[in-house]
Design goal:
Blueprint lengths: L37 E9 L3 E6 L5 E6 L20 E10 L4 E5 L5 H27 L4 H16 L2 H8 L3 H4 L7 H14 L5 E11 L4 H13 L9 E6 L2 E8 L2 H19 L5 E12 L3 H16 L24 H7 L6
Parallel strand pairs: 3-5
Antiparallel strand pairs: 1-2, 1-4, 2-3, 4-5, 6-8, 6-9, 7-8
């Protein structure tokens, strides 16, 4: 679990280093997390006392989540809460650097905590992948590159990813005072630019559309068609059926603000059209949200899960001692997944 010898492996030729020889691959300067830190883990195995996991940000150190720290609610089957191979956000309860014991908790993590940790992990993983790629390319150990470049950037900028973004525009300023070869510096910047290339955003809004008048389904179809016609070559509007009278208005674009305006215009067109029919009405369900793993979608799913948990909370606190790791299942019945797969549901 300790870092390997930090001596540089870079030779005169800068020959690439095999992945297995890259050395200590923790994400942060600290070798162990602090108590109450939120960390991302991978579940390796489930035993009687709890679940054993690897701390992905700390060189895959082993830790443990006790059964009593899995969930606030009572459960009969642990397999309904955790699954081997899945990733989970947990809170650090105890750390023993000498023995290497790390005790963790799933039950003490809030939905907001999960979103925050997942965002941090995503950023840190991009940095780590960039560093590994540069280290392998230039015949270095990851720990050498971390100590000479990445740890100082974390200290100065709060997060090394923010620093590398800045470096793409002002490399001399960002790397000032750091002992880094020019070619290595170029590799870091080029790699992070590729990882940060803009990706299309998917936005959606859920709506209820119905008509109890003579026109009935024909009125609903006309209203949904009016909404789709708001789209253009730049931003298309798709409308899919969830279950009558529920529909989802979806668009995909690079500009979030433009996409939100288009969805708002589409909903207004639907509302105006359906209300022009006798017995027709429209209702928006919730806010416009970003799909595809963004914070708004993730927080919504987790808050729904938390609300279910609150109805059956077990308030008894158990102070068990042990060492292990656990991982809960991330909710799988996501509305968006169903919506994207249900192409037959187009209005």
């Amino acid at each position: 679990m300790e870092a390997r010898d930090g001596t540089s492996s870079q030779g005169a030729t800068g020959a690439a280093v095999p992945k297995a020889d890259l050395g200590d691959c923790r994400f942060y300067e600290e070798r162990f997390p602090d108590v109450e830190d939120l960390v991302m883990v991978k579940v390796n195995r489930i035993a009687d006392l709890g679940a054993y996991v690897s701390l992905l940000e700390y060189n895959n150190m082993e830790g443990m989540i006790l059964m009593s720290e899995l969930s606030k609610r009572r459960f009969r089957s642990v397999n309904k809460l955790i699954r081997v191979g899945r990733h989970e956000v947990v809170m650090v309860l105890r750390v023993d650097p000498k023995k290497g014991y790390i005790d963790l908790s799933k039950r003490r993590v809030s939905p907001e905590d999960i979103v925050k940790c997942e965002e941090k992990f995503s950023k840190s993983k991009k940095v780590h992948q960039t560093v590994r790629h540069a280290a392998q390319k230039h015949g270095m150990k990851v720990d050498d590159l971390n100590r000479s470049v990445i740890w100082p950037l974390y200290r100065k900028y709060g997060h090394a990813l923010d620093a590398l973004k800045e470096a793409a525009m002002r490399p001399d300023e960002v790397f000032a005072g750091l002992e880094v070869d020019e070619e290595v510096r170029k590799s870091l910047i080029q790699d992070i630019q590729l990882r940060l290339a803009p990706q299309a955003l998917k936005l959606r809004a859920r709506v209820d559309v119905w008509c109890f008048g003579k026109q009935g389904i024909d009125a609903v179809k006309a209203a949904l068609q009016a909404g789709q016609e708001v789209g253009d070559d730049e931003v298309t509007i798709n409308i899919k059926l969830i279950a009558p009278p529920q529909y989802v208005v979806v668009t995909s674009c690079y500009d979030k603000e433009l996409g939100m305006r288009k969805i708002e215009q589409a909903m207004k067109a639907i509302s105006d059209k359906i209300k022009s029919f006798s017995g027709g009405d429209f209702k928006q369900q919730g806010e416009i949200v970003v799909m595809g793993g963004d914070e708004e979608k993730r927080l919504e799913e987790l808050l729904e899960e938390a609300n279910e948990d609150d109805s059956s909370d077990d308030e008894e606190e158990e102070e068990d001692e042990g060492m292990g790791r656990v991982e809960d299942d991330i909710p799988e019945d996501e509305v968006e997944d169903d919506e994207e797969d249900n192409d037959d549901g187009n209005a």
